Structure formats: structure tokens, C-alpha cells
Amino acid sequence: MALKGAEIIKKLPKTNCKECGYPTCFAFAMKLATGGAKLEDCPYLPTEVKAELEAAMAPPIKLVTIGTGENAVVIGGEEVMFRHEKTFFHETGIAILISDRERESDIEERIKGIKALHFERIGQKLKINLLALSFESGEKAKFEALVKNACETTDFALILISRDTDVLFSAANLCADRKPLVYPITRENISLAIPKLKELGTPAGVKGERIEEIVSLTSNLQDAGVEEIVLDPGSKNIREAIRDQSLIRRAALKKGFRPLGYPTISFPCFMYQDAFKEALAAATLMTKYAGIVVISQVDKHFLFPLLVHRFNIYSDPRRPMTVEEKVYEVSTPDEHSPLLITTNYALDFFIVSGAIEEANIPAYLCIKDTGGIGVMAAWTSGKFNGEAIADFFKKYGIENKVKHRKLIIPGVARKLKDELEEELPDWDIIFGPLEASDIPKFLSEEWKE
Prior knowledge:
Layout: H1 5-9, H2 25-33, H3 47-57, E1 64-66, E2 73-75, E3 93-99, H4 104-116, E4 118-121, E5 124-127, E6 130-134, H5 140-153, E7 157-161, H6 165-174, E8 181-185, H7 190-200, E9 204-207, H8 211-224, E10 229-232, H9 238-253, E11 265-266, H10 268-271, H11 275-287, E12 292-295, H12 300-313, E13 326-330, E14 339-343, H13 346-359, E15 363-368, H14 375-380, H15 386-396, E16 406-409, H16 416-423, E17 428-431, H17 439-446
Parallel strand pairs: 3-6, 3-12, 6-7, 7-8, 8-9, 9-10, 11-12, 14-15, 16-17
Antiparallel strand pairs: 1-2, 4-5, 13-15
Helix pairs in contact: 5-6, 6-7, 11-12, 13-17, 15-16
């Protein structure tokens, strides 16, 4: 459980030296409790006290990193059972299963298809995160060839799946620099696996037939110094999976039970052979509370809804989606191009910019930072009024971008026109259409020449 500021202050030296950047030790303690400061900021904290506080302040669900670089997948670190309580921080990793039993040509085609699967939504790129490489052929050389191929042709994070411990760690040794997740670590192979895990520094995917068995395995790994662990309770269907995932999450968050304080992995690809049931199970487990879901589908008609579903779950409900404040150039405008303005609410931007592109008329689109709220709410709160827009014009030198003096404002902002005519007396303020879908027609008529 997270420590409160009043509990942390008891451990601090209470010198009020201000060297941490805060006026008092109590202020520093309060910042520590909310994650706004680091223990390293206190120069007088004894080593043993620092270690004690680090252990006590560690997240109830440990962060685990699979892969390296910008494509590394970070899971865990969650703090709440339900998204509306705060937010979920680290989105579920979606892994595609590839078996070494498949033909080489089919594997090549599968990997090619996975690499091409990426979509854009509200300025965010949605894509697959991991490849789950499975040893099913019975031929060690074929599995190693699959692992080498994945390393050479992709930059995805990797999951290595083999019940043959020798094959598993032989393959892990080939790509240890990519920090793969090795799976499964079970009661049968844990004694052989521990020294290899410590040597290679790879995360361990623990599998048990029941949650009690997982507790025993994670405790042994903890005692051996293996810190990055991912849990698989061995759920065989969606009902068991929801039960197991909820029990693990609740034990970690509500009870502070460290042996279960790790992210989880689930395998809808092994639960169901039917593609629709597999996709339904994957979507359910993203909500309840899998850190990784492994699926067999590469069809974009199944994957796109899953990617959007994940995006919606892991968008912070406390913060609207926004885009950067600036003047956007749509289709290479010039000094005679139309000039439009709206808020930095992401949907406003993408709908309006898309309509401008559809009109095939190059334009400048001014995006004013309103904290991510829409036109009318921003106007009533003073973030999108005449004075604010006039300041925006000065900041970005709008008068130097175009020779004309016509500004198109959102059609719903009827009261904004008078304010702008007062603040920008040299500009002709034009109402745009009420609906963004009418922008192409509006621009073609308004800007015929």
C-alpha cells in the first residue's frame, strides 16, 4: 500500500535544510507521497532508511519491461482496480503467436503482415507490441531459426514459449540483448531456470495451475533475486480468466500481497479456436486486467477493434485528448490561403483538418490551447475569447502569414465575433459552418479564387 506523507516524515532527518528544493521536510514528504519528488533529492537520508522507504513506497504491482529501446513494452505499475478511480497507466501489450511448426513462407508472410498493422487514431499510433514465438515443432534448430528471423527482421519485443527448458534458454541466449520474456517457468523447471534468468537478465513468465502455486513460484524467484516476473494463473476459459485476474489484482492492490504484485499474461489464443471468441476474450482481458494478451489473429478486421478498445481503456479519463498549440499548415498553404481557428481538443483538430484536406484547398489551421476543451466551454471559461485569440495572433505572427485579413471562426461561436472585431479591428471575422462536414463546401464557395 502507498505510504502517506505523515508516515514518510517520521523517517526523514527533519533538518529543514531546503537542499531538496522544498521549504520543509514535511513538504518534501508530501511530494514523495504523491510521486512528485524522489528519495535521492534528500542528501541526508541514511542508506538503510532509504532502502526501507524504497521498499515501502514500491508500487503494489511491479513494473516489468520486456524488450529494449523505444519498442520496449512496459507493464504493471497500476494503482487502482477501476479506471474511473484514477487511471490505468501501462496499456496491455498485444502479442501475436507464431509457431515454428508453420512453413517458412507462411512465417515470413505472417511477420510481414504484423509489421504492416498500424493505425492512427486522434494522433496516436495503434499497433501490435510483441511477437510470441512458440516451440511446437520438436526441432530445436527450427525454433532457433524462428527466433533469429524475428530478431533480424523486426524490432518487436519478444516472448519465447517452450516447455523444453534447454530449448527455451538456448533461444533466450540468442536474443538476450533484446530482453525477451521467457515462458513458462513452472515448479518443474524453476530450479534450472533461476541461474539462467539471473545470468541473462530476462523477465520470467511464471505459470501455475492455480494461484497458490504461483505464490510459491514467485516467492522462490524473489528469494533468488529475480525481480521481473509476469504471472499466468493458467486460466482455461474467459470465466476462469476474469476470476483469476481479479483475484491477483485485488490481492496486490487491496492487501499489498507482494508475491502476487506483478503484471499478468493471458492466452486467448489457447482458450478458443473460434476467432470471434478469441477476440472477445482478448477484449475482456484488456479490461480485467491482463498486462499482455497473446492472440493468433493477424486479420486487421479483428485487430483494429482490439487496438481501439485498448486505446480507449488506457486514455486518462481525467484529461481530454489534446494536440499541440500552433499554426498547422494543411496541404502547403501560401499567403492567399484561408485561415481558420479552433481549440486544441483533439477531435476538433482532426475533424476540421480532415475536412480541409477533403476540400482540397490548402489552408492555415490555428490551434489555440484551451486545455483540451471544446469551443463553447473554452469561450465561457475565457480560454477562447477575443483577447486570448488576439494574443495568439501576436505570439505566432499570423498577420505575416497571409496577405488577406479574413479569419474563419467556428460557426457555433456566435458571440465570439463581436469580441474579435474589437480585439482585431483590421480583420474580417467570418463564421464557418455549424457542422464540420460542411467545411469542404464552405471553403470551395468562400475561397473560389
